[in-house]
Amino acid sequence: MNADHALEVCRDRVAHAAETRSAIRSIWNEYIGQVPRRFVLKPGRDDDHRVVAVETFERMPVRLSTLFGEWLYELRAALDGAVYFMAVRDSGQNPPPAERGLMFPTFDDAAKFDDKGHRGRLKALSDNSFALLRQVQPFNAQPDQHGNVLWWLDELARIDRHRYGHALASHADHIRVGVSSPLVMVESFLPPNPTGPLIVDEAEPVRIIEVKAPSEWDGVDIQQHLMIDDGWSSFVDVPEWRSRAAQLLRGLSLDKRMYACEIFVLDDIIEPLVTGTASLPQPERGEDGGS
Predict the structure, then answer these.
(1) Over the stretch 75-117, which tens digit does the pLDDT of each residue have?
(2) Superkingdom of the source (predicted)?
């Protein structure tokens, strides 16, 4: 095994992850193009009142979450492949010692990374390689692990494994409904000071407002006095990733966040480790006893 071949395999896995990301984007755009959610009128508190809601008539394709799981697998497999190559290179053996325990480590606790048992599972790696892996661990991230790509890949894989149904969810980022007289809005069901986009419950209509209409009006009359032509738009994301990620990641769309992960995994982690260009920080002056 040589570095060129190991890099070729890792790069191809990341490239396939990018293709999977593109497929997620295409399926979502096709799904949204079918207008799967529409404004509807639901019964209100009495005969003169109606609730304006958005109802899902076509649920988000399950394939989206399946593909997201595949995207995670390819990136994690590329990282594991880099560690396997390092183990072969450092030990001079193929397969390397303790082969079954080889995987890219991800720890948010330094003590667990430094544990003798963990070091033993990676005994094929040299002390320098082990130190290089330690350097990129989430426990070194500032201000915390929520800004670390490796931690998120591990956390998202956990969510993907244990979530029944979708890891992904539709988020409404634009909700605006207007009324014209004599129709009157009597109540809004939306948060007055939303902290972020609304996660859409596809199983139940999303109640927007309640309106009061003249007693002789029917549904058509009410609809003619609602301004809803541009009242709703949405995007897809992983709720936990969007809400808990560090600001730099949270401000990106899902597609751009995934792309940033691909670039980081390949350019900042795998390539330096496999090519041997990764280096440990030099000790500051005075740490080695010098003046």
Answers:
(1) 999 999 999 999 999 999 999 999 998 999 999 999 999 999 9
(2) Bacteria
Reported as a single tens digit per residue, the pLDDT across 125-158 is: 999 999 999 999 999 998 899 999 999 999 999 9
244: nearest Cα among 168, 147, 165 = 147
Q: Which residue has the tokens 């350097």?
A: 135
Quick: pLDDT tens for 149-202.
999 999 999 999 876 667 899 999 889 899 999 999 999 999 887 778 999 999
Name the residue among 57, 76, 58 with its Cα closest to residue 68: 76
What's the number of domains the chain is made of?
1
Rounded to an integer, what distance in angstroms lies between the CA atom of residue 252 and that of residue 259? Answer: 10
What's the token pair of residue 61? 């394709």
Angstrom distance (rounded) from CA 74 to CA 15: 9
Pairing relationship of beta strands 206-212 and 37-43 according to DSSP bridges: unpaired
Q: Is residue 16 part of a domain?
A: yes
Contact between 122 and 101 under an 8 Å Cβ cutoff? The reply is: yes
Q: Which residues of 243-263 are buried (b: 16+ CB within 10 A; e: fewer)?
A: eebbeebbeeebbebbbebbe
Residue 281 inside a domain? The answer is no
266 within a domain of the structure (yes/no): yes
